[in-house]
Design goal:
Elements lengths: L3 H6 L1 H10 L5 H38 L1
């Protein structure tokens, strides 16, 4: 199993390896697209959580 960061930084090397194993190198592109979507979604989730926590803290401060 390859580390996603390795795949991101060594895309051509991974494509060559996938091709040598007899698989379609487009799998690497598919992985990179899914990885980018996942990382974007994770960032949005973290931003939403931060906003929620900030609002909760402000409500607690106002209640005091």
């Amino acid at each position: 199993m390859l580390d996603p960061e390795f795949i991101r930084t060594n895309t051509e090397k991974v494509r060559d390896g996938v091709k040598k194993k007899g698989f379609d190198p487009i799998l690497v592109d598919s992985f990179l697209a899914l990885d980018a979507d996942w990382r974007k979604s994770l960032q949005e989730l973290e931003e939403t959580r931060a906003a929620k926590n900030k609002m909760g803290k402000e409500e607690r401060d106002e209640a005091l």
